[in-house]
Design goal:
single chain, about 170 residues, two-stranded antiparallel sheet, 4 helices, elongated
Length: about 170
Amino acid sequence: MKSELVTVRCKCGLTAQIPAGGKRLCACGKWLTAEETVPVELEPVEAAPAGGPGWPRIEGDLSAIERLNDGYRRICKELNKVIVGQQTVIEELLIAIFARGHCLLVGVPGLAKTLLIRTLADALNLSFSRIQFTPDLMPSDITGTDLIQEDPATGRRTMVFAPGPIFSA
């Protein structure tokens, strides 16, 4: 059963739709409720021309932010079940993930770097594999290499690709 939405205007001038009895955070940082604010009637908005650019609606933006916040809190909750006392590292790791960026975890042994990533992979239902880097590690040790393989029955030699750990699933 859907609750009725009330359109309200904040003191900063933005309008938002709030479920009856609910509340929503305005872009200015003020919490809006249907009971404390004055409902407004919005004029119908003309549809954007087909294929033309249209401004994103604030309702869609707020919904996306709420979904992102919900995902952030759920992932943090799962990580905090295993990782203790690394809130800054967890926050920065999730910022990198949500920004579709990269993250390099550097530290002395015993800081739970591998455990953090393994737990994150489990929380997101992803696969996890680890490569131990050493000073003598070669690129082919990671990506794989071609090997000569001889067929004992025919004596014929063929090149066979042996995938490295980067191909692990």
